[in-house]
Amino acid sequence: MDAIVVMGVAGCGKTSVGEELARRLGWQFLEGDGFHPPENIAKMSAGIPLQDEDRWGWLDTIAAHIALAREAKAPIVVSCSALKRRYRDRLSAGGTRVLFVHLDGSRDIIHARMALRAGHFMPTTLLDSQFAALEPLESGELGIVCDIDSSPAEIAARVSARIASVA
């Protein structure tokens, strides 16, 4: 496996779980939000949902980092919403083996978590657009779904235990 992408809607815990998972595996962690261009951050900060055309460059940048990790034989964990199948296909293009870990939870739980975050550009008003865009993992995709009912450490432990069975 070349990379693990911890995916899901805003506020589901991608960064917290991804950091803990990377620590457990001894892999590098990359925060996908850090690769958004300023225009995307400005849109989201203003409460404007991103469209596919806003995401392609961002996804290509993340895919390039995954490809570099593959070439270096240094697998990585990346946080990235990866909401749609075509986004996930773009991240795993070129024979790159990417395991997608979908952090799944109810809108109410995620909304409550988002409301507690300080200093993040993604407002709670965009949560519904995230759920509307979300395409759950399909058969044929290398991935696992994990409920967000526990702490990030517990979720990362569950994911770690399941990696061998799906990889």
UniProtKB/TrEMBL annotation:
InterPro entries: P-loop_NTPase (IPR027417), Shikimate/glucono_kinase (IPR031322), Therm_gnt_kin (IPR006001). Keywords: ATP-binding, Gluconate utilization, Kinase, Nucleotide-binding, Plasmid, Transferase. This is Gluconokinase. PANTHER family: GLUCONOKINASE-RELATED. Pathway: Carbohydrate acid metabolism. It catalyses: D-gluconate + ATP = 6-phospho-D-gluconate + ADP + H(+). Belongs to the gluconokinase GntK/GntV family. NCBIfam families: therm_gnt_kin. GO terms for cellular component: cytoplasm. It holds the Pfam family SKI. It comes from the Bacteria. GO terms for biological process: D-gluconate metabolic process. The keyword Cytoplasm does not apply. It is an enzyme of class 2 (transferase). GO terms for molecular function: ATP binding; gluconokinase activity. The keyword Zinc-finger does not apply. Its EC number is 2.7.1.12.
